Write a sequence for this structure.
């Protein structure tokens, strides 16, 4: 039973290594965007800019 588990984990990790750059881009980019937008919107100086 443990061998099947180890094989599954190895397969999963190999897939993760191959797709890691795209996966990181897909997951991290929206998080960074949301963080930056929330930071800009909560910034006091941005609210005082006369548009």
């Amino acid at each position: 039973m443990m061998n099947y588990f180890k094989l599954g984990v190895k397969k999963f990790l190999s897939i993760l290594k191959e797709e890691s750059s795209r996966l990181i881009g897909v997951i991290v980019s929206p998080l960074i965007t949301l963080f930056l937008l929330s930071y800009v919107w909560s910034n006091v100086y941005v609210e005082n800019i006369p548009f």
Remarks:
- The mean pLDDT is 79.
